């Protein structure tokens, strides 16, 4: 687990900067340099002494972005910018920072892609942190049913929350936080728990101010010891009409591209399917527009009965989505994991890796990351590419997004 | 070293320790103020302006902001801190310690360099003296005044060198700097571009972008000088000069933005219809750009110049970013490609690099201009409008050097005089263009209000809001 420390990185706004060289001239430690296009700040050299701030004639110098210390914007990135990357700033009047829990969980979830990343260029602009712990939104439960079959060992629920007249705008791939009522053993309010939103931006039911969550009832910890997940049990036990305190939305990077012809490769396990369902449903609702692009899904679970949304998924036309299911505990078949399927479909996977319009999303348990990376490396090797180089390119173009927990 | 503002002439050069020099400059000071009152911004003496004043030459002292009544602006003498052990980095004296006094054999050459630079400073104040009457906003009025007071300070910087290092000759030159007048038929400023009129704010912004950038390149080349006081003086001036280019680049950018916005809103593209919306059409802007760029190129002088060669060889004036260039800094036997005229064709020929230093500085300058124009084009592109601004060809509309007598189109085609006469109205601003721009020039002085032809800035000065009262009228 990568508990990356978040720091402020000093950057220069290329839209306002007039390339006058004053900052470079002033910097006592030579942290500022330029090429024919931009002036940039070397992260590992800048000591934040602020000597460059007052002499700047434009104010372009005074910009910062929060980044993981281990993964700042490289000067090569900065040289390529026409504008600063967006930062998820809370809207004015809100508390300035995201809740520490959310920052911590996000860091862990995105460690697989090396920390915070940019969204696809054609992603819609996300709202983030509209509702805070101090002032959460109140949603009403309008649906709650079990997705997995009764005989399945996991109890996964599809929960629909309605926001009534409260704004809670979301995009596919974003999460929200739920605050379970009551106090923990230490007498403190429960931590925020994050859940990926499983419905598209225009509602679980189109045109309604509602959204869906995919929640697995936690009955055991990672080592298999019995444990009662406070928030998941709270959610799975909710009844229609119950009210829930919700914060968020969160997430500015794991977002889908919107431009016609863009393709999605989605790799998930278990409730990691929630954002994939949201994106798939978004595309399904727009299928009639004929915008093109393909959908390829790699979906792993223990057995068909454990697979959330198995039924509706199977009804989707083959020419709309290319579905690949892996079952690790199906009684009649050898164990299969998503990485096996990626290898099986090497030719198609390689084609998508090469296609600049394809975007890759990985969501599920942490354990899947290594296998998926190895599978990509193998596919690349067999098709005359090197995964490290491909991955660099994917990250640079914001085409590779990971959320694992 | 902190600047002592209790002195009559604020300075960080220990003026009090040199009584003769102090008296000489105190004698010049009222003459300067007379000049400012006569030739500085028209009608501005009662305004309180939110200005940046240097309180020290260290980075934390460059930008002290407060309201200042402009004639009370503390013009003073500020040199960048010395670099201990600085060596001359180019020319025949490369490797020798930088001079703290003027070498006798270079005295007249250095004086000419300083006078030529110094003459541009009051000239631009004179050129801009009426612009305040038609300011598009308080923000812009403040920026204009900031530019003006700093040009005044740059004059002080050069006058200090003349007084401190050139004796009686220097004092006479310092007087003459206050006597020449921009555009005066009998006693004009030394350089051509500084005798052109700056009649409107479009011209002002383009002047600040193009012509003040020439200032930057000249100062940068002088910052390399082996004469250390000149180097330190210019180094500090460069920091102030940056604000002037900011005013130019952002001013033109805001005009473009406003024009594009109006074009999109009303879905018009034809220049006449764009003008009818009360904004400046992009082809007119292009013609103004052609004018300001080409007259500024002349400031660099002839392509082949033995003066320029001598300045370099003698260690007086370096190349742009001399110390960052990876060569021998002596230019022994080096060649440099220059543009030449062969019949009616433009050709590249190889010339002695040391003879071609004017051309090299001009080329460095053009590169930077092109990058700025590309940034303007991004604004147009972002608005989804199919128009691209471009720098005209280096040989277009030149009055000095190889192309002075040639007629070259903006695309770089040598054309017969008849074609030039026929097309020059499409290439350079016509009187009708200037008349149209003049119709837009009203005076907007309500805080937060901006004239229709220009967008508000993205951010204010000193992190103040864009509706801040940047100028208070008495």
Low-confidence stretches of chain A: 89-96
SSE order of chain B, one letter for each helix or strand: HEEHHHHHHHHEEHHHE
In terms of DSSP E residues, the strand content of chain B is: 5-15%
Residue share in helices of chain B? 40-55%
Reading off the top of the CATH hierarchy, the class of the largest domain in chain A is best stated as Alpha Beta
* Oligomeric composition of the shown chains: heterodimer
What is the CATH C-level name of chain B? Answer: Mainly Alpha
Tell me the number of strands of chain A.
Answer: 15
Q: DSSP strand (E) fraction of chain A?
A: 15-25%
The CATH superfamily label of the largest domain in chain A reads Nucleotide-binding domain of ferredoxin-NADP reductase (FNR) module
CATH fold node name of chain B: Ribonucleotide Reductase, subunit A
What class, by secondary structure content of chain B? mainly alpha
State the end-to-end distance of chain A: 9 Å
Largest interface: A-B, 21 and 25 residues
CATH architecture of the largest domain in chain A: 3-Layer(aba) Sandwich
Uncertain segments of chain B: none
**Rg of chain A (CA only):** 22 Å
Which whole number gives the mean pLDDT of chain B?
94
Strand segment count of chain B: 5
Which key features would you list for this structure?
heterodimer; A: Alpha-Beta Plaits; Rossmann fold; Elongation Factor Tu (Ef-tu), domain 3; six-stranded antiparallel β-sheet; B: 474 residues; mainly alpha; Ribonucleotide Reductase, subunit A; two-stranded antiparallel ribbon; 12 helices; 47% helix; globular
Description:
- Chain A is of the alpha/beta class and 405 residues long.
- Chain A folds into 3 domains: 6-85, Alpha-Beta Plaits (2-Layer Sandwich); 112-119 and 253-404, Rossmann fold, CATH 3.40.50.80; 137-250, Translation factors (Elongation Factor Tu (Ef-tu), domain 3, Beta Barrel).
- Helix content of chain A is 22%, strand content 23%.
- Chain A has helices spanning 22-26, 75-80, 100-110, 230-236, 273-285, 310-314, 338-344, 346-354, 368-382, 387-396; strands spanning 6-11, 32-34, 39-41, 63-68, 137-146, 156-162, 175-179, 192-196, 210-216, 243-250, 263-269, 295-301, 322-327, 358-364, 400-404.
- In chain A, the strands form 4 sheets. Chain A has a 6-stranded antiparallel beta sheet with strand order 8-7-10-5-6-9, sandwiched between helices. In chain A, strands 13-12-11-14-15 form a 5-stranded parallel beta sheet, with helices on both faces. A two-stranded antiparallel sheet of chain A has the order 1-4.
- In chain A, helix 6 links the parallel strand 12 (295-301) and strand 13 (322-327).
- In chain A, helix 8 packs across helix 9.
- The longest helix of chain A is centred in the C-terminal third of the chain and has 15 residues, at 368-382.
- Chain B has 474 residues and is mostly helical.
- Chain B has a single domain (15-472), classed as Ribonucleotide Reductase, subunit A (Orthogonal Bundle), CATH 1.10.620.20.
- Chain B is 47% helix and 6% strand.
- In chain B, the strands form 2 sheets. Chain B has a 3-stranded antiparallel beta sheet with strand order 2-1-5.
- In chain B, strand 3 and strand 4 (345-352) form a beta hairpin.
- In chain B, helix 3 runs antiparallel to helix 6 (228-266) and helix 5 packs antiparallel against helix 6 (228-266).
- Chain B is globular.
- In chain B, 50% of the residues are buried.
- The mean pLDDT of chain B is 94.
- Classes of the chains: A alpha/beta (405), B mainly alpha (474).
- The interface between A and B is medium-sized, with 21 and 25 residues.
């Amino acid at each position: 687990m990568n508990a990356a420390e978040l720091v402020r990185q000093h950057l220069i706004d290329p839209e306002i900067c007039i390339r006058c060289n004053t900052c470079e001239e002033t910097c006592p430690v030579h942290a500022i340099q330029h090429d024919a296009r931009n002036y940039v700040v070397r992260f590992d050299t800048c000591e934040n002494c602020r000597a460059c701030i007052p002499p700047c004639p434009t104010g372009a110098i005074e910009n910062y972005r929060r980044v993981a210390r281990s993964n700042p914007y490289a000067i090569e990135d900065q040289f390529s910018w026409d504008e600063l990357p967006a930062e998820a700033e809370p809207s004015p009047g809100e508390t300035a920072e995201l809740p520490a829990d959310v920052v911590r969980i996000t860091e862990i979830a995105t460690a697989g892609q090396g920390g915070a990343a940019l969204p696809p260029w054609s992603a819609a602009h996300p709202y983030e942190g509209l509702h805070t712990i101090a002032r959460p939104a109140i949603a009403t439960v309008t649906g709650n049913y079990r997705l997995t079959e009764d005989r399945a060992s996991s109890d996964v629920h599809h929960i629909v929350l309605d926001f009534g007249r409260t704004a809670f705008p979301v995009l596919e791939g974003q999460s929200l936080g739920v605050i379970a009522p009551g106090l923990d053993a230490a007498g403190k309010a429960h931590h925020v728990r994050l859940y990926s939103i499983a419905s598209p931006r225009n509602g679980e039911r189109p045109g309604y101010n509602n959204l869906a969550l995919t929640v697995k009832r936690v009955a055991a910890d990672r080592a298999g010891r019995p444990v009662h997940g406070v928030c998941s049990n709270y959610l799975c036990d909710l009844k229609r009409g119950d009210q829930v305190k919700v914060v968020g939305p969160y997430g500015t990077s794991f977002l889908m591209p919107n431009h016609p012809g863009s393709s999605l490769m989605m790799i998930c396990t278990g409730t990691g399917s929630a954002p994939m369902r949201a994106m798939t449903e978004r595309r399904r609702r727009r299928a009639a527009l004929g915008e093109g692009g393909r959908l390829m899904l790699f979906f792993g679970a223990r057995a068909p009965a454990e697979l959330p949304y198995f039924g509706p998924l199977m009804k989707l036309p083959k020419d709309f989505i290319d579905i690949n299911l892996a079952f690790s505990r199906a009684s009649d078949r050898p164990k299969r994991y998503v990485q096996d399927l990626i290898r099986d479909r090497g030719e198609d996977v390689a084609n998508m890796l090469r296609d600049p319009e394809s975007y890759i999303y990985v969501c599920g348990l942490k354990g899947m990351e290594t296998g998926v990376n190895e599978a990509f490396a193998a596919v690349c090797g067999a098709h005359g590419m090197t995964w490290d180089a491909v991955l660099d390119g994917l990250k640079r173009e914001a085409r590779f997004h990971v959320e694992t927990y | 070293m902190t600047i002592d503002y209790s002195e009559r002439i604020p300075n960080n050069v220990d003026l009090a320790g040199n009584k003769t020099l102090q008296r000489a400059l105190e004698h010049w000071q009222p003459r300067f103020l007379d000049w400012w009152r006569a030739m500085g911004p028209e009608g501005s003496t009662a305004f309180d302006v939110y200005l940046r004043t240097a309180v020290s030459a260290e980075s934390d002292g460059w930008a002290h902001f407060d309201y200042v009544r402009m004639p009370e602006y503390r013009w003073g003498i500020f040199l960048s801190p010395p670099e201990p052990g600085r060596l001359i980095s180019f020319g025949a004296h490369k490797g020798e310690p930088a001079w703290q006094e003027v070498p006798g054999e270079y005295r007249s050459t250095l004086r000419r360099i300083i006078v030529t630079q110094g003459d541009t400073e009051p000239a631009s104040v004179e050129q801009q003296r009426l612009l305040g009457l038609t300011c598009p906003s308080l923000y812009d009025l403040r920026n204009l005044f900031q530019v003006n007071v700093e040009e005044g300070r740059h004059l002080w910087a050069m006058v200090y060198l003349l007084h401190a290092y050139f004796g009686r000759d220097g004092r006479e030159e310092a007087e003459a700097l206050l006597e020449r007048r921009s555009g005066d038929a009998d006693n004009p400023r030394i350089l051509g571009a500084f005798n052109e009129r700056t009649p409107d704010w479009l011209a002002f912004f383009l002047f600040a972008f193009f012509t003040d950038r020439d200032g930057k390149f000249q100062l940068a080349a002088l910052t390399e000088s082996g004469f250390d006081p000149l180097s330190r003086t210019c180094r500090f001036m460069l920091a102030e000069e940056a604000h002037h280019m900011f005013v130019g680049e952002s001013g033109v950018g805001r005009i473009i933005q406003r024009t594009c916005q109006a074009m999109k809103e009303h879905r018009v593209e034809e220049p006449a219809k764009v003008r009818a919306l009360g904004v400046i059409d992009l082809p007119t802007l292009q013609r103004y750009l052609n004018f300001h760029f080409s007259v500024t190129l002349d400031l660099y002088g002839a392509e082949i110049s033995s003066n320029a060669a001598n300045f370099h060889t003698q260690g007086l004036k370096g190349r742009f970013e001399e110390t960052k260039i990876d060569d021998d800094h002596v230019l022994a036997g080096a060649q440099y490609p220059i543009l030449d005229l062969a019949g009616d064709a433009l050709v590249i020929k190889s010339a002695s690099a040391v003879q071609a230093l004017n051309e090299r500085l001009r080329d460095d300058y053009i590169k930077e201009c092109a990058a700025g124009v590309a940034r303007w084009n991004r604004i147009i592109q972002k608005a989804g409008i199919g128009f691209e601004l471009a720098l005209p060809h280096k040989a277009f509309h030149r009055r000095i050097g190889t192309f002075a007598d040639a007629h070259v189109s903006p695309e770089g085609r040598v054309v017969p005089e008849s074609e030039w006469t026929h097309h020059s109205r499409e290439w350079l601003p016509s009187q009708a263009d200037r008349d149209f721009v003049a119709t837009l020039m009203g005076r907007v002085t309500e805080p937060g209000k901006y004239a229709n032809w220009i967008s508000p800035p993205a951010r204010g000065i000193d992190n103040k809001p864009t509706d801040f009262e940047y100028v208070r009228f008495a």
